[in-house]
């Protein structure tokens, strides 16, 4: 990017350069990475001569120069003829490691934000919020907060910014009407902003008794909003309105509802047993108990219910082994994944039977189960999977084969204990045959290390 921008500046194409700066202003992270790259690039024009660039792009590049004198003069020019497209580069310089550059950039940014916040606050916010993590980034954050209190600050437009950091800053720094907070909580595109808005609404409603607003938020499809709304209802003493959320899909909402249920004297396990829903099944696993009623749900017509039931039984350590093994070929891939996680004792032939199945989800289950049989079986499964037609499984097989091959080489910096690969007399020929078939999909080093080791199965490669 630095080379491209330098070539645009050298060509004297000011319109293209300004368009490039406009695009960069929408990518604050790119501005910071560009500055880091520029410090590592030697540009011979920094030998003490200074000619003020005539274009905005030239000034931006000068702000990133490794020579502190050039950066200081560029900052002075940016402040003297400010443009919103150049403000992100000025913000970066407020954290400069050279005090003269840093002080001049800070003074200039403070003046610009004070004189015209409507023009310069949107330009400074994206980069400013990210360099706050730097050692010297607190100054910019304080300036942004001070500017946000100015009546001229365009907080409403910042609330619609494509940058989620800027949206959150605009909301937390502004003073908003209750209806606007509700709108943000219900429609904001990111979870942090929705949660912050819902928390603010719940706090206001708890003080003012606006139950109808809390009920509206409690119907939100987003769990973080429902949690805040239900918390507000609990603070208003309306535990009875929280009880219907005992089988909510969110674990945090269920926990809040169970606390309310205990105060109401509700038998929570009995409630969960009486309902067949994903939330009720998950909730029963959380309160623990006798899960015999869940066994019946392993044959439920809904794949979602079957998957939740086998997971709940696994968490309760009550999964029937025979039923779980039969579910490894369930028509639903999520059910197969949950059943795979619930298998405790793997029959020796089962992984290879599953690896030969026509369905990728079943083959992946066989691959995962093979790893429970030890390193020899794990290598056999990895070499088998290398040539699989399913991209994800083949990629995993290559990665595991490479990892196991490298673990065979003794190196002084490896602290993790590696289980030795010691194939028996019957395993060696099969592994060598699998390796030859998989060699085309493996890198040269992996193939070499495995071939050397399998050629001498009685001892590891030193």
UniProtKB/TrEMBL annotation:
InterPro entries given in the database record: ARM-like, ARM-type_fold
Top-level division of the source organism's lineage: Bacteria
Record-given protein name: HEAT repeat protein
Species of provenance: Saccharothrix saharensis
